[in-house]
Please model this.
Amino acid sequence: MGIYLSPSMLSIDFTKVGEQLAQVEQAGVKYLHLDVMDGVFVPNISFGMPVIKGIRKASNMIFDTHLMIVDPERYIDDVRAAGADIINFHVEATKDVAGCIAKIKASGAKVGITVKPNTTIETIQPYLADLDMVLVMTVEPGFGGQKFMADQVHKISTLAKWKKELQLSYDIEVDGGITLDNIREVLDAGANLIVAGSAVFGKEDISGAAKAFHNILKEYDEA
Ligand code: DX5
Ligand code: ZN
Model:
């Protein structure tokens, strides 16, 4: 399964995208988290297909897309065509969760469901066997640099428990406010994909920040 860092491009310096992507890739980062926002599902707008397509040419990292858009089924094929390897959508954003899962699978991408802080983890329980990933938000989606909500960690533990009981293999990703100071809390609970925006691209020494995360992840990977 493996434990990986997925730095969020939301915090990148957009005047230095190629350079900063190369910095994390050279530091051994395998995943890149891409936050797509529509200004409706969340009160912010980020970037979409042209940006994903553009950076696809410059990076071999696994593109882990996090769609914060209403009715995500409208854009699944376009996001995949732009270069997404994993497509996460919010369970709160669609009336047709099963249809979204089927559409993402048919596109050839890996499929993940995301839950907002006020959504119970039980909401997605019926879909677990069909998923490659579950993404637990530890901030309200929409912005980088917010404070980690420790009261969401129980969802990670529950997902880890279900995974074991049901003998499933989905990844458990966590997103929002993760730093070197709280990462152990989510790893202890069972998360294996760690999103970090401001704690990686927001730092002066991006490569050093990625390496510091890797040092901690390594301890858990070897355990
Ligand atoms: C927030 C996004 C996050 C964000 C994380 O809606 O989903 O991926 O970029 O940023 P930090 O790590 O700064 O909280
Ligand atoms: Zn995200």
